[in-house]
Amino acid sequence: MVKPIKPFPQKNRLFAAIKRRTIKKFHDNNSVIGECVLINTRRIYYLSLIAIPLCILDIHLFSSSGSYDTPVSKTWSQWIIAVHLTMLILVVGFFLAALKLKNRKKPNTAMYVLQYAGVGFLMAAGIVIVTIDQLVTTNITPFILVCIIIGAVFLIRPLISIIIYAISFLAYYYAIAFTVTNPQILLSNRVNGITAITIGLFLSLILWYYNYINITQKRRIEIQQKHLEQMAYYDSLTGLPNRRFLEELIKREFALMHRYDHETVIVILDIDNFKNINDTYGHPVGDNILKQLADLLRNNARETDTVSRFGGEEFIILMPNISLEGGYAFAERLRKIILEESFVVGTLTLRITASFGVSSLRDVEDENLENYYSLADKALYLAKKSGKNRVEVIWKHENRL
Description:
Elements: H1 9-31, H2 33-63, H3 71-101, H4 109-133, H5 141-153, H6 158-175, H7 183-233, H8 243-260, E1 264-271, H9 274-281, H10 283-300, E2 306-311, E3 314-320, H11 324-340, E4 343-345, E5 348-350, E6 354-360, H12 374-385, E7 391-393
Parallel strand pairs: 6-7
Antiparallel strand pairs: 1-3, 1-6, 2-3, 4-5
Helix pairs in contact: 2-3, 2-4, 3-4, 4-5, 4-6, 5-7, 6-7, 9-10
């Protein structure tokens, strides 16, 4: 019995690699379709602005050119005028649709329909006009123009572009046979049609490639910028805004506070005896406690508040549009929540306490804005000195509240 010959492993690996690359490229192309549809919608809008006066001018020129010598030329003129009138009506429709959609930030189904309807309309117009033109001339300029315009203006992914141009050539191939009776001219125009299709397809592929590169590079730059911003303005452990971010926010809030005459409160808190946790259980456990506390603070603060990590085991909460009494009440509520919270790290369950200092940003002088936290820090010191796990408030002109 003859055993079947198995394919070479190298051949299987080659086919698998080609398949993976094809699938990856397909998905990569799909990833930029949304941006391309938005671009195509705007281009249809501007193309319509150009096409509307051109259609009107063409209708005027064909209508005012006088009488025609033969029935064929008369038929040609009537059909050309009718086609341009139809084109004018459709172009106005495309213009109105694009006008409504062009400012959208995200693509929708209407944009996809408009995109392919625009391409199909242009290609059909070129084929119809060339077919009618064959009654009086042998040139195929309109078809060449639409092939180039579609390839140079619309961003169409390669597979769809190939299908569009293939179908268009077949339609052109058979359509011109209705009006061309000379076999030599018919053959010549069909060959020239292949050239037009090839040029248009080549332009389409090149345009897609360069826009694909531009869009993907732009995305990478945006991701890198966000990553750099994350590194510069956010704490890597807790994900909270860091001291640098808070200082810039304080400057803006200080100006808003004086402009709209509202009060803004600063709450600073420090975990009591945090060094003992690190020394007893290790820094990984301490880091985990900090992350859990950051989540707890974030979940209990108002949407308008900014919770930031000030450094080490210290956190600052910026609270706009609240009185100092309101800030004190919030800090006291937060102190009790922390006191009752169980912090679970692996098999460990730990309890912690925190001390709070509260002050008003209104009490900070313009020239001392970089020390915006000094009063709250003094209040925190009083809380630590008075036994920890408590909230203290300091006014500018009073020592203690």
